[in-house]
Amino acid sequence: MHRLIVQYGQPTDPAEFDQHYRDVHVGLAQAIPGLLRFTVGHPRSMDPIAPGPYLIAELDFESADAMGAGMGSEAGRAAGADVATFATGGASMSSFDLDDVSPAG
């Protein structure tokens, strides 16, 4: 499994960000070929001095190659292009292979 993490900074208008994300961007992301799982959340920083991101999205794919193919597709490019239309606080992306280190149970 390969995961893409998108962290969005604090937008200038949170209500507008949330509406666009929910009503437009989610649908664009869900159309990316090879997407297996897509989760989002508004994190709370555990460090009172350093604020956390406004929103984090996690997109899971079978492999790095599958993610590359999906993000390079027409749907992936459309979702990527849409970020500039609403992410006034910026966005950063990173990806990695998942390594399950859960305790045996």
Automatic annotation (TrEMBL):
Gene Ontology MF: a single term: oxidoreductase activity
Residues in EthD domain copies: 10-88
Family matches, as Gene3D superfamilies: 3.30.70.100
Signal peptide: none
Entry superkingdom: Bacteria
Protein source organism: Modestobacter caceresii
Protein name per Swiss-Prot or TrEMBL: Ethyl tert-butyl ether degradation protein EthD
Pfam families, sorted: EthD (PF07110)
